[in-house]
């Protein structure tokens, strides 16, 4: 398999579970725009980490592989969130459970 296809496959695998990890830091009260920014930044970080984990830090300097992995992560994350994690209420539940309670919400 070509290196670019391998990078896309790795990105797809990482991106499928990324929304669950992102839900830990996101808060239900945040605006949709802010959540989008967090999701894209998370995909970028996860893409770089996936490239580094797959081929070492030297691989990150190969722009094509890093870009392909990032795009794979971003596409898989958005797709899996929209098709699996949001409809099943798993990601929103994680957001709600990990949200810090303010003084007005504390029991």
Radius of gyration (CA) equals 16 Å
Proportion of strand residues: under 5%
Order of helices and strands: HHHH
Query: How many β strands by DSSP?
Result: 0
> How many H/I helical runs?
4
Structural class: mainly alpha
**Count of individual domains:** 1
Terminal CA distance: 55 Å
Low-confidence stretches: none
Q: What is the mean predicted local confidence, pLDDT?
A: 86
The main sheet comes to: none
Shape: elongated
User: Helical amount among residues, as a percent range?
Assistant: over 70%
Give keywords.
single chain; 107 residues; mainly alpha; 4 helices; 74% helix
Task: Describe the structure concisely for a colleague.
The chain has 107 residues and is an all-alpha fold. It has 4 helices and no strands.
What do these coordinates show?
By secondary structure, the protein is mostly helical. The chain has one domain (3-98). Helix content is 74%, strand content 0%. It contains 4 helices and no strands. The chain has helices at 3-25, 32-55, 63-85, 90-98. Helix 1 (3-25) crosses helix 3 (63-85) and helix 1 (3-25) packs across helix 4 (90-98). The model has no long low-confidence stretch (mean pLDDT 86).
């Amino acid at each position: 398999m070509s290196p670019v296809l391998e990078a896309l496959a790795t990105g797809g695998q990482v991106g499928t579970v990324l929304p669950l990890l992102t839900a830990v830091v996101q808060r239900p009260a945040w605006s949709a725009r802010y959540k989008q920014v967090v999701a894209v930044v998370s995909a970028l970080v996860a893409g770089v980490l996936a490239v580094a984990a797959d081929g070492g830090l030297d691989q990150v300097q190969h722009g094509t592989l890093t870009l392909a992995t990032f795009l794979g992560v971003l596409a898989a994350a958005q797709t899996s969130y929209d098709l699996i994690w949001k409809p099943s209420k798993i990601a929103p539940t994680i957001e709600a459970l990990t949200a810090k309670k303010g003084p007005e919400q504390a029991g």
